[in-house]
Design goal:
3-stranded antiparallel β-sheet; alpha+beta
């Protein structure tokens, strides 16, 4: 056998090994990306006008007085601005976040994005939606879409602990809005 054919075979084997390795990495990243998409959604009917629910939701200074989930929050509710807040939910340590406000649609939607690091690791796009369903009655939706490679590792905690935090906040908002109406 000539030296050229042995060298050519080695190069082919190296090339094939590289292609297989790149394919395996790409497949793993695709699986993690697919598994790394999760949405958590809760809803509650509140017997109060949307303006009242919005006023409570956007009165950040008053959160410690009524909100068992987001216990501290500060910043300006202006698109592009950063908020600073602390959440507390069952069976978890307190956590601090600094999300960026994405949308403020008065009496309808408040949405922000929080990221771990520069993004893609564990990101959460949180939204509060107020939908009028009757005279002095709204459906309040609190939801968050999680993306990133670490999401699959926290999926169970999101479904239990974080969901409970959302539901606790929803109930407290309902009670305050209905009491104040």
């Amino acid at each position: 056998m000539s030296k050229i054919s042995i060298k050519s075979r080695r190069q082919t084997k190296i090339l094939l090994s590289s292609v297989v390795a790149i394919g395996a990495v790409a497949a793993t990243l695709a699986i993690l990306y697919t598994l790394g998409n999760k949405e958590l959604r809760t809803e509650i009917v509140i017997n109060a006008p949307e303006e009242r629910v919005w006023a409570i939701l956007t009165d950040l200074d008053n959160y410690p007085n009524w909100n068992p989930f987001i216990t501290e929050i500060s910043g300006d509710l202006i698109e592009g601005e950063k908020l600073k807040f602390r959440i507390e939910h069952p069976n978890q340590a307190r956590m601090d976040f600094t999300p960026t406000v994405l949308n403020m649609d008065e009496n309808r939607e408040l949405r922000w994005l929080g990221m771990v690091g520069s993004g893609g690791i564990f990101d959460g796009e949180h939204r509060f939606v107020i939908e009028r369903i009757g005279e002095n009655q709204v459906k309040f939706t609190q939801a968050e879409r999680f993306t990133g490679i670490l999401v699959p590792f926290y999926a169970q905690s999101l479904d239990t602990n974080l969901r409970q935090g959302f539901e606790n906040m929803n109930q407290a908002l309902k009670e305050l809005a209905e009491r104040s109406s």
